[in-house]
Amino acid sequence: MLRAVALLVSLLLPGAVSAQEPPTPAGSRPGEESPAPEKRPKPKGETPENAAWRELMSEARVSELDYVRALEEFLERFPETKRRPEIERAIVQSAIEMKDRRRIIRYGERVLEREPRHVEIAEYVIRALLEKDDPDSSKRALRYAQQFLAALRILELQQPSGGSKLLAARNRLDRAVAKAYVFEARALGNLGRLQEAVKLARASFERFPTAEAAREMGRWLARLGRSQEALERYAEAFVIDDPDNTAGLRAGDRRRMRELYLKTHDSEAGLGDILLAAYDRTRQALDARHAELRKIVPNLDATHVLDFVLSGLDGTRLDLASLRGKVIVLDFWATWCRPCRQVHKLMDKVKQHYAERDDVVFVSVNADMDRGLVRPFLAELGWKDAVYFEDGLERFLQVTNIPTIIVIDKRGDLVSRIPGLIPGKFVDMLVRRIDRALNAG
After folding, report:
1. Which of 150, 88, 83 is closest to 119 using CA atoms?
2. At how many degrees (to 10) do helices 211-223 and 247-262 cross?
C-alpha cells in the first residue's frame, strides 16, 4: 500500500522521476531459470563500457540479488559511467523488493542527492533510516522528510481544477503530506524534541486522520509522561477506519493501551468506554474531512447519474435531475483529444436530426484536468455549445476513453456507450441508439 500511494503521488508530481530498471531479457524473471543468451557479434569499435553493459543486459537474470550484484560490479569497473543515475535507481528498486535496508539507504540517498523530488524512493529511504533511532540516522531522515514535504507543496499548487480528478489528487496529496509529518515527528522524537514530535503528529492527523498519526502521537505523549492522552491516541489508532491499519498494528495498540491503563487502574474495567469515546472522535474527524471534500467536489455523495449537478463554463449549473423524462446524450471530450474535434462535427449532424424534438438533450462534458484551457480552445475552434465540466461524472460512469458518448434513457438508466470514434458509422450508430432509448421510454 505504501508503495502504491507513493507511486500515485510521484506520477502526479511534475519533475519527479519514476524509477527505471534496465530492461530484463524476455522470458527471464527474478528467481526463474532463463534460456541461454543468444551469442551476438561484438559491434565494431565498441568501448569496453558499452561491451560490459551489453553483456550485463543480455545475461539471464537468475535472481534479484544476482542482478543487483552485477550492477554494483559494473559501477565498480566504470565509476564515471553516465549510466550511474539509472543504475542506482534500479538498485534501489530491487533493494525495496528484497527489503534490503542497507542498500535502500546507501543507494537511495545517492538518488535523493541528485533527485530530491523523487518521492517514491524518499519514502523508503526515510522509513529505513527511522528503523534505527540513533541521532545521525534521525537527522538524515529529518532532512529527507523536509525535502519530501517541499516536493508535495509544489504538487499542492498544481492540482486539477475540479471533478473526480481533483478528489483523487486531493486524497493522494493529503495522505502523502500526513505521512511526511509523521516522518518528521518520528525523527524529531528520536532526537529528543518530544513536544515538536507531538505537534507534527497531531498536524498529520488533522490533515488526514490515520492510525499511523494517532499512534505516533501516542508514542511521544507516553514518553512525556502524559499517559491518559497517550492512551486516548492509541485507542484512536485501534478503532479508526483506516485500510492501512493491519491486525498486527492493532494488536500492538491494544497491548500499549492495556499497559497505560493498568498504570492507574487495578483492572481493564472501563477500557471499553475509552474505546467507544475514541470511536466517536475518529468518526467525527472522518466526517469533518468528508464535509470539506464535499465543498470542493459537490457530487461526492452522488449514487445515481441524475444526482449530479454539473458546473458550467459560463458559471451556470446543470442539475441532471431536471432532465428526467428526456433522453440525455453526454458527450465527453477534452482539449487535447484530436478525435474529439471530429466527433464535434458529427454530433452537429445528430443534433440536426433531433432539432424538432424537445425530449432529446445533448450535454457537452469537458474532462480536462486544467479547466483554464477550455475557454481559449472554444474560442479558437468557434464552438458555440454550452460546456459543462465533468465534476466526478466521468469516474462515476467509468469513462476510460476520450471521446466517449453515453446515452441515458428517460428513466435515468445508462442504455448505450460509444467509446472512441468510427467516422463512417458514428452518426447512424448514435441515431439508432437514441431512437432505441426514445422508443423504450
Report:
1. 150
2. 30
Half-sphere exposure of 78 (CA within 13 A, CB side): 16
- C-beta of residue 429 within 8 angstroms of C-beta of residue 366: no
Query: For the CA atoms of 373, 163, 16, 174, what is the dihedral angle to 10 degrees?
Result: 140
Structural domains for the chain: 305-440 (3.40.30.10)
**What does the pLDDT look like over 217-249, one tens digit per residue?**
999 999 999 999 999 999 999 999 999 999 999
Which has the closest alpha carbon to 343: 360, 364, 358, 323?
364
- Global pTM value: 0.70
**What phi, psi does 418 have (nearest 5°)?**
-125, 95
pLDDT tens string 396-425: 999 999 999 999 999 999 999 999 888 888
Closest CA to 21 of 111, 119, 92, 123: 92
In whole angstroms, give the CA distance from residue 367 to residue 373: 11
Q: What is the pLDDT of residue 32?
A: 42
How far, CA to CA in Å, does 387 sit from each of 295, 358, 406? 22, 19, 16
- Joined together, the cell numbers standing for residue 293 give 471534500
- Which letter does DSSP use for residue 387 in this model? E
| C-alpha grid cell, residue 153 | 507543496
Task: Give the CA angle between residues 184, 187, 189 to the nearest 5°.
Answer: 105
Q: End-to-end alpha-carbon separation of the chain, Å?
A: 46
pLDDT tens, residue by residue, 332-367: 999 999 999 999 999 999 999 999 999 999 999 999
Q: Across all residues in the chain, what is the average pLDDT? A: 86
Residue (of 430, 396, 394) closest to 415 by Cα position? 430
Phi and psi (nearest 5°) for 61? -100, 95
SS3 call for 23? coil
Instruction: Find out whether 126 and 145 touch, Cβ atoms under 8 Å.
Output: yes
DSSP 312: B
Rounded distance, CA 144 to CA 65, Å? 27
What the block records as the C-alpha cell of 285 is: 474527524
Number of C-beta neighbours around residue 416 at 10 A: 18
DSSP β-bridge partners for residue 404: 332, 419
